Every structure is written in structure tokens, then in C-alpha cells.
Amino acid sequence: MSKELLNDIDSDLTSSDNPQACSHKVSEEDIKRDLEMAEGSVDYENESFEPQSMRDVRALVFQFVYAAEQFDYSVSIESIIDNFRRGFNLNISDDNAAIRISKEVIKNKEELDEKVSPLLKNWKIDRLGCCTLLILRIAMWELLYNKELSPAIVINEAIELAKSFGEKNSYKFINGILDEALNSLGLQKEQGKEPSTDEILVK
Fold first, then answer.
1. What contacts 17, CB < 8 A, 6 or more positions away?
2. How wide is the angle at C-alpha 62 spanned by C-alphas 73 and 92, nearest 5°?
3. I need a labelling partner for 114 at 20 to 30 A (CA). Which of 79, 108, 127, 128 fits?
């Protein structure tokens, strides 16, 4: 997947320069307009894009859960993904790791928030920027449910997500919280090999 495509998607959804960007909720009219987008109305030079690495997958997971958050989870993830397929010409199957992980993160968001909250110390979870919270949910899900992954990789990839999509300097905050998460979960920050997109397990 090209970096340009992910940047185009990101510019349509959020701005990392604006800490309040994630707090804006779309209206019902916005939802209807987006989900009724005419097929092919946005065409990236007739190219089809497919995630080629786990970094691509994580970027898409972030975009999917961000969109769901903006719709207050009132629109199905299936509708959101279909909109991305048509609007951004994404070539992803229903069993793609990005879709499977997105569904799991959304389904378990309350549990994930419960794991994150005690790590915030003097912060309340509702004070976190939306993008920061979503990246923490994604990383926490990986730490909890994909034990085959190296915790070091999970943290490093969360930092990269934060640098690309998060609020300014949020990657430093996320790094600290996830280090605390390793301690609370009894995990070692050991290095390991990143699995392919086909090897990611969603139980």
C-alpha cells in the first residue's frame, strides 16, 4: 500500500496538528452522505491498493476504528469498510487481518479501556485525545490477544502510528503507558520477528 494513499485517507479523517480533531462527531447527515458515496467517485488513478505489511494493516486498523469512533459506533464496521473500499479503492477481503483486528478492538473496547485506565495515574481516560486512546486500544489488544507478537514490536509500531496519526508528541506518552502495560501484564520487552499478515491470529 502506498504511503500517499494512507496520507490521503488520513487527511480526510483527522489532522495530527489539531489535538481536538478527534473529538468532533459527525452528524447523521454526514454519515448518510459518506455511506451513500457513489461508487468510484474517488478514484486513485484506477489503482487498487492492498496492505502488504503489518504496518499497513495497523494503519488501516487505526483508520477503521477512528471512523467508527466518529460515528459513535452507530454505523456498522461493515458499512465503514465498504465505504473505504469504494471511496479509496482498497482491495481487502473480509478475512483480511485489518478487518479482523478492527472488529476485535471495537468489540473489546470497554475491556481495553479498563486495562489502560489504571496506567494513566494522574490522567483520566476521557482526557486523552481520541487518536491517542485509539492507538492505545490497538496496542493493548495486541499485547493481550496476540501473545505470539513481540511486545517490543507492538510498542514500536504503536509509536510509529502515533507519529503518523496521533496528537503532537503523543508518541512519547504512548511509549510510557505501554511500558507500564508490560509491567502490569508481566510481559518482557523482548525482540522478535514480525509475523506476516497471514500469520496474525484473531481468536
1. 168
2. 95
3. 79
> Would you give the DSSP letter of residue 193?
P
Burial of 98 (0-12, 13-18, 19+ CB in 10 A): buried
Count of helix runs (H) and strand runs (E) in the chain: 9, 0
pLDDT 10s digits, 1-57: 444 444 444 444 444 434 444 544 444 444 444 444 433 333 444 456 778 889 999
Cβ contacts of 2-5, under 8 Å, gap ≥ 24: 2/49, 5/44, 5/49, 5/88
Q: Domain 109-185 in CATH: superfamily? A: NusB-like (1.10.940.10)
